[in-house]
Structure formats: structure tokens, C-alpha cells
Write a structure and sequence with these properties.
The structure holds two protein chains of two kinds.
Chain A lengths: L1 H23 L4 H4 L21 H13 L22 H9 L2 E4 L8 E4 L13 H7 L11 H4 L4 H9 L15 E2 L7 E2 L20 H16 L3 H30 L4
Antiparallel strand pairs in A: 1-2, 3-4
Chain B lengths: L2 H5 L1 H9 L2 H9 L4 E3 L8 H20 L9 H10 L4 H28 L8 H23 L4 H13 L7 H9 L6 H32 L15 E3 H26 L29 H9 L3 H16 L1 H4 L11 H21 L5 H28 L9 H6 L14
Antiparallel strand pairs in B: 1-2
Helix pairs in contact in B: 4-6, 4-10, 4-11, 5-6, 6-7, 6-11, 7-8, 7-10, 7-13, 12-13, 12-15, 12-16, 15-16
The chains are: A mainly alpha, B mainly alpha.
Chain lengths: 262, 416
């Protein structure tokens, strides 16, 4: 019986993994515009027990706030969510209060400006897409809330893109407002190199190299895209351990019930 | 009816007025005689049923928090992921459940192909299964549109446009599907309504599927009819416990994807909000449609492609009459054995080709695989039944399982 079971499991796995491979190979949207293969990075939030490095994520938030936020919105994240990254309630209030939001109408029917509260979404740099295109040479800096889930390669892509700016090869013609980045599909990107050495000053003394800032902001963006990740991993371990034990009992019960038949 | 249940006065009182306990007993209880030799591939029917229930339950909770409007759909899904308690879990169960459902059902179908479960007298059982597959595909397609990401929108545009290939009525059908002149808010609204409705239609057809199954009982790995009581054992407890074990293994695999690789089956582009002004570089359907997508693209003519795609499923419906062999199980069909595995391989090749851009070698591979797919059903199966010499069949299930002459041990299905 066990032989049959192994055979059945093997066949099933074969069919499933075959399906997975044909499924996995689908994600070739990158093939449409040629781009260099993404170098694999190791991330602390990957793996079964993966969590976000709080210090890195906080530094990453600083990079977002001081650099990226000039052009990119983060519209699905609220200031209150930053508490996940280890900011205290007071810190979150202070971060929010530095921004202005339009609220209203008030009792006399007028819109008014007030400091942002923790319950507000992170304030956008531009009021709408048209305004952001007008300010950016016609290009639209995409919202970053889901960026790490919305690109093939996820965090590896974000990181590679941020560190991937180079002098263009001689045969590449760039138009005005185009920059060379071999990890961007088509290799011509409208975003100028966003990070430069020493651009931010980290309070914890981490050197603000392009690689460090890119890594940290990638961790932060991954949290923004998958804020449930730590809870998901924790619950997943518990659920799967429980299921393995339960399935063991089911198998024992099956053996017992079938004992008189074989 | 098991004796212990019969002894309970309340159960007896209810059952004599409303025979639900008898019905249950005859469906999945000790009153349902089952071949004693079913292997683990017979678990996939119950797994499909379990997955259907999981999908309906998770779907109902998602619907409570989802907004079917082009301006709000994408963000309402993200609200489920971020702000609804346990919302990420429910959504990832539902999203991965769709892939699990297709994996289970595809294995279930290939089980039927391998062991000849579609042959007389189970033709209608099989055809109901094909109907279920079609309903599932329609439901999955409409569900994929609901998050209103880029792939939702463009997938919907491509697939609904297929119907325009039909002469005369085509354009009218497309307008009807869209509820307008492009994929827009009315499309999303009707897809949501239908996506909620269809699973219950599926439940109805599943009930018919099970009713048809119980008419002659399960086929079995030997493909010969269960004749005597020695060939059969009661469904409960033997197959209830075996199914339970299968559900446990399945749940572990399912949970792995939900918790540790929730976007494995998904397309990253669908985390970009739908934008009718910007076509993604490479529009692909979900993985479970890829073989059919490859067939669609293999025919250079639009109408021809659409017809071929539907024919790929239609040919399954008439399979009981295409296969001329009277032998059910591939175990006794030495030549068909190889053709079966060639078909499995062919389907993977189709899936692979369907996920690639429609250019160069991928088109050629897709065309060859498409040609073989139809060749298998329309030429190989009708001829093979006449040409192949099957191996000798065992005299009975019990003889094959227990060895001839051995005294049948243990449980058997006693006549009431």
C-alpha cells in the first residue's frame, strides 16, 4: 500500500510541478522589452521564518520620505501603519503632522488644510496623474505601494533598478529625459538616477552608500507591498505543523481501518 | 444504514419522515458499495468537492468586502489585504484555491482518461464532468477580472473579443458581454454577479454528477465491473477515512502556497491597477487556461482558433464514442498506455507554448501540439480500439486484488 501511495504522490507531484513549471515560465513579461537578468539577492523577509529588519525598514522609510516621495506616491499606506516598523505612536504622529492634507467641507462649507493624522494615507506628492506627468517630462512616476509585487523579480527587481544606472554603451541612443538602466525593460528609463552617495544621513550611522540605501528602501517597499508577511509566515508555520500532525493521525486511522482488508 | 444510527430514536423518527440520513448513508455512508481496489487517484473527486466548498465560503467573505466598481475594485481588494481582519488570509485562500481547484480537477480528468471512467455505462457522468469543467473555467475567468488589475482588464478584453469572431451574432454577443462598447463598469458588474451565481450552478451540476456516479458506482483501477460482494466494500468507513487522509495531504500543499508563496500562480501585472490606455507587453491568461490559449493561437484564423479552442473541450464530451475500445483500464491496454502519456506530455507542451509570446518556435511547437491533441482523440482513439490487442482481464476485482483462490478476508459488502 505504501508503495502505491508513494507512486500516487509522485505522479501527483509530477503533474503539479509540471503545471508549476509551465505556470512559472509564464512570467516572461520582461521578455517583451529586453533587460539584463536580475541578480539574486538574499532578503531577511524571504523564507519560512522571514521577518522584516526593523532598522533597515526604518532607514528605508527615511530614504522614501527624503528622496522617492518627491515624485512617487505610496497611496495604500497610512501613517498609522508605520507603527509596524517599530515607530512609536508619538513618532508616527510627528511624522504625519509634518504633512498637510485638505479636509472638509467644514461647517461653513469650505475645504480647509490641516496637519495629517496617523489615520491619513501617506500624502501624495502630486494631486493627480496629470499634475505628476506635467512635472516629470510627461512620465508618470508610479505609485510604490505594490511595486515589489507588481514586477517580475519583486524585491530583486527594485534593488537592481536602483543600483543599475550606468553610462550607456556607445550604440545606445538616449533621447532627452531618458536614462540608461539595463534592468529596466527596454533599458531606457525616464527616471533619473534617484540615489547618490551620501544623499541621506542615517541617524544610526549606517553609511549612505547607493547599495545600502537601495537595500533599505527595498525592504521598506516590500513591507509596504506585503505588510501581512510576518503574520502570514508565523501563522503558516503553525497551520502546517498542525496539518502535518493531523494528517499523521488520519493516515494512522486509515491504516487501522483498512487493516482487515489487505 | 449503519445499525448504530438506526438505534437512535430521534434519528429513526426524522428519517422515517425525511430520509436525509438514508440519503447520506447511500451517498457517502456504509450503504454505498464501492470497489475495494480504488487507489489514491480516486481521492481527487472528494478533493474537488472540498475545494469547491472552500472557494464558496472564502468567496462569500470576500464579497462582503469587495466593491464592484471600476473606480474602487482594485483598492477594495487592497483594503481586504491590509485592513480587513484576516482579509489577506481569505483572499490568498481564494486566489490559490482557484489554482488548487484546477490542479485537482485536471488530475481527476486524467484519472478518468487513464482508467477509462468515461466508458459505458458512465457516459453521462463524464459529460456532466465536462460541463463542470466549462462552468469552472467561466467562473475562474470572471473571478480573475474582479480585482481590476492590468491582467484582469486586458485578459477580459482579449477573451470577450474572441466571441466577435462568430459571424453575424459575434458583435452582438460581445456587446452583451460588455454591457456597452468596451470592457467597463457594466462588464465588471455583470461579471461579479455571474461570478457569485456560477458556483451555485456548479453545486447543482455536482449533485447531478454524484447522482450519475451512484447509478453504477465508481469505476476502479482494473476497469472491470464489480460483480460480487467480495469485490466491494462500504464507502464508510473505508473511503471516508482514505479521503480524509487525502484531504490532509492536500491541505498541507494548499497551505504552503497560501502562507509561503501566495503569488506564485499569479501574474505580477495584476498588482497594477487596470489602465485602458496602456496595453501590457505580454497578455497571458492564468496558467490553467494556457493549453487552451495555445490551441487558440495555433490556428491562423480568428474564428478557426476560437472554434478549435471550444472543440478542445467539446471533443472530451464525445470521448465515450470516439474511444472504440471496450477495455476501460489502461493497465490492460499496452499500446494506449504510451498514447495516454503522450497526451499528458502534449498538454504540458501546450501549456508551455501558451505562456510564451506568439512568435517563432513557440508558434510551431504550439501548432504541432495542437495537431497531436486532436489527432489523439479523433484518429488514435477510434483506430486503436480496433487494432490493439488487450492483455487478459482478471475474472474479478477480488481475484485480482487478493490473488486467485485466496479466501477473501475482511470486510465485504453483504447483501442487506
Amino acid at each position: 500500500m505504501l508503495k502505491k501511495l508513494v507512486l500516487a504522490a509522485g505522479l501527483t507531484l509530477g503533474l503539479v510541478s509540471g503545471g508549476l513549471i509551465s505556470g512559472g515560465l509564464v512570467s516572461s513579461a520582461r521578455a517583451a522589452g529586453d533587460a539584463a537578468p536580475l541578480p539574486n539577492q538574499t532578503w531577511g523577509f524571504h523564507g519560512v521564518f522571514g521577518t522584516y529588519d526593523r532598522a533597515a525598514a526604518q532607514r528605508g522609510f527615511q530614504v522614501y520620505k527624503e528622496v522617492c516621495a518627491a515624485c512617487h506616491s505610496l497611496s495604500l499606506v497610512s501613517y498609522r501603519n508605520l507603527r509596524d516598523l517599530g515607530f512609536s505612536e508619538e513618532e508616527v504622529k510627528a511624522i504625519a503632522a509634518a504633512y498637510k492634507v485638505t479636509d472638509g467641507p467644514n461647517d461653513v462649507g469650505e475645504m480647509f488644510e490641516r496637519p495629517a493624522r496617523p489615520s491619513d494615507r501617506i500624502v501624495k506628492p502630486y494631486p493627480n496623474e496629470k499634475a505628476s506627468r506635467a512635472a516629470n517630462n510627461g512620465a508618470y512616476p508610479p505609485d510604490l505601494s505594490l511595486m515589489n509585487k507588481a514586477r517580475v523579480g519583486g524585491p530583486d527587481y527594485t534593488y537592481a533598478l536602483l543600483v543599475g544606472y550606468e553610462k550607456p554603451p556607445a550604440d545606445v541612443q538616449l533621447l532627452d529625459g531618458q536614462y540608461y538602466n539595463k534592468y529596466f525593460p527596454g533599458m531606457k528609463i525616464a527616471m533619473p538616477q534617484p540615489l547618490n552617495e551620501g544623499q541621506v544621513t542615517f541617524a544610526d550611522g549606517t553609511p549612505a552608500t547607493i547599495a545600502n540605501m537601495s537595500r533599505d528602501v527595498t525592504v521598506f517597499m516590500n513591507w509596504a507591498a506585503e505588510p501581512e508577511l510576518e503574520k502570514r509566515h508565523r501563522l503558516g508555520v503553525q497551520v502546517i505543523l498542525f496539518l502535518i500532525v493531523a494528517t499523521g493521525f488520519f493516515y494512522a486511522a486509515k491504516r487501522r481501518v483498512w487493516a482487515d482488508i489487505h | 444504514m449503519s445499525t448504530t444510527a438506526k438505534q437512535n430514536g430521534l434519528v429513526k423518527w426524522i428519517d422515517s419522515r425525511l430520509p436525509i440520513f438514508t440519503l447520506l448513508d447511500h451517498s457517502v455512508g456504509s450503504g454505498y458499495p464501492t470497489p475495494r481496489n480504488l487507489n489514491y487517484f480516486w481521492n481527487f473527486g472528494s478533493l474537488a468537492g472540498v475545494t469547491l466548498i472552500v472557494m464558496i465560503l472564502s468567496g462569500i467573505f470576500l464579497a462582503m468586502n469587495y466593491t464592484a466598481h471600476v473606480d474602487h475594485a482594485f483598492n477594495s481588494v487592497e483594503r481586504i489585504m491590509r485592513d480587513v481582519n484576516g482579509g489577506w488570509l481569505i483572499r490568498y485562500i481564494h486566489v490559490n484555491g482557484a489554482s488548487m481547484f484546477f490542479i485537482v480537477v485536471y488530475i481527476h480528468i486524467f484519472r478518468g482518461l487513464y482508467y477509462g471512467s468515461y466508458k459505458a455505462p458512465r457516459e453521462l457522468l463524464w459529460i456532466l464532468g465536462v460541463v463542470l469543467l466549462l462552468l469552472m473555467m467561466a467562473t475562474a475567468f470572471m473571478g480573475y477580472v474582479l480585482p481590476w488589475g492590468q491582467m484582469s482588464f486586458w485578459g477580459a478584453t482579449v477573451i470577450t473579443n474572441l466571441f466577435s469572431a462568430f459571424p453575424i451574432v459575434g458583435e452582438a454577443i460581445v456587446t452583451l458581454l460588455w454591457g456597452g462598447f468596451s470592457v467597463d463598469n457594466p462588464t465588471l458588474n455583470r461579471f461579479f454577479a455571474l461570478h457569485y451565481l456560477m458556483p451555485f450552478v456548479i453545486v447543482g451540476v455536482v449533485i447531478l454528477h454524484i447522482a450519475a456516479l451512484h447509478q453504477f458506482g465508481s469505476n476502479n483501477p482494473l476497469g472491470i465491473d464489480a460483480k460480487s460482494d467480495k469485490d466491494k466494500i462500504p464507502f464508510h468507513p473505508y473511503y471516508t477515512v482514505k479521503d480524509l487522509f487525502g484531504i490532509g495531504v492536500f491541505a498541507i500543499i494548499f497551505a504552503f502556497f497560501v502562507f509561503f508563496a501566495p503569488n506564485f500562480f499569479g501574474e505580477p501585472d495584476n498588482y497594477i491597477p487596470a489602465n485602458p490606455m496602456q496595453t501590457p507587453p505580454h497578455i497571458v491568461p492564468e496558467w490553467y487556461f494556457l493549453p487552451f490559449y495555445a490551441i487558440l493561437r495555433s490556428i491562423p484564423d480568428k474564428l478557426g482558433g476560437v472554434l478549435a479552442m471550444f472543440a478542445a473541450i467539446g471533443v472530451l464530451a464525445v470521448l465515450p464514442w470516439l474511444d472504440t475500445s471496450k477495455i476501460r483500464s489502461t493497465k490492460f491496454r499496452p499500446v494506449y498506455f504510451w498514447f495516454f502519456w503522450l497526451l499528458v506530455l502534449d498538454c504540458f507542451v501546450l501549456g508551455w507554448a501558451g505562456g510564451k509570446p506568439a512568435e517563432g518556435i513557440y508558434v510551431i511547437v504550439g501548432r504541432i501540439a495542437t495537431a497531436y491533441y486532436f489527432l489523439h482523440f479523433l484518429v488514435v482513439l477510434p483506430l486503436l480500439g480496433k487494432l490493439e490487442t488487450p492483455k487478459p482481464l482478471p475474472s474479478s476485482i477480488a481475484a485480482a486484488v487478493l490473488g486467485s483462490g485466496a479466501a477473501p478476508a475482511g470486510a465485504r459488502m453483504e447483501k442487506p
